Each structure stands twice: as C-alpha cells, then as structure tokens.
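Much of our argument rests on the idea that a fold can be written as discrete symbols. The record that follows shows the chain in one-letter code together with its fold in token form.
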Amino acid sequence: MTDRQRRTVRLLLVVAAIGLAVTAVAAATPAGRALVVEDANSGEKLLATPVSNGTPVILSYNHSVEKTPVHDIYVVDNDSLVMTGMEFQSYGWGLPARANVTRENGSFTFDPQGRYEELYVKPGRTADHRLRVGNNSYDLVARSDAEGVRLHLTERSVLQNTLDTLDS
C-alpha cells in the first residue's frame, strides 16, 4: 500500500469515527416528547410526531349512527394526554347524555375529566377516524388499515425526532 493510500484510509477512518460520534451524541441527546401511534396488537410504530406541553391532539370521526362529526380534544401535559373537550353536532349512542353540555356555534360541547397515559382507538372506515396533532392531520384508517391503535407519549432523542420527522 502506498503512503497516499494509507493517508486516504486514515482520513476515511477519521471521517467515519466523527460520523459515529455525532450519531451517538444525537441518539443520546434528549429532544423532548413525541406522540406515538402504534398497532395495538403488534406494537409496530405507525406514526411518531414531536409534541410539547400544550400541543393540541384532536381525534375526529363521524358518529356511526348519527353520521355527524365528533371531536375529542386533548392537550399534551408532560407524560399525559388531558381531555379538554368534546364537540358533537347531535346526540347518539356513546355521546354524553347526562353531562353538563352547552351549545356553541352549532355544536354541543362539554369539558370531560380525563388524564390518559395511553388511548386505544379502533379506527373505522365508516367513521373515517382522523388525528390532528398541532397543525398536522393524519388519516388513522389508512395508517392502521382500520385496525386498533394505541396512542401514547414517549421521550425522544434528537436522532429519533429527526428520523420520525423525515418518516412522517
């Protein structure tokens, strides 16, 4: 091997070592939380999107009998999703008949109590379940193939957030 080839090999090794070090630091550096949607049975990750305290998370669907929109409204609070409201346009099975409901802008609204570390949802083609996280909207039916999903929050590294942002 010539001196030039040895220098080239050393340079490549140094560049590779620097790349590995940068990747290791990014993988170990906390970047905050992410909302994760995974298959409820297999645990396969279907979506991971960065969130912070106060990020709104809205599960929207059409009521199966009434055929009217329903919005379950949550907000990220540390390691939990806190339900801050529900909006619906007509009463039907599963909607709060005895809650303190008010009427605002043509919809019924109420402020349910609830703090959840995880939520399980069975997206349906008829219900057309959608998930809005901050300003981004996701089709839960398409992502899950209408199979049950688990939503939860997790701590993410800089590297994980970067990869998840590219993957979303």
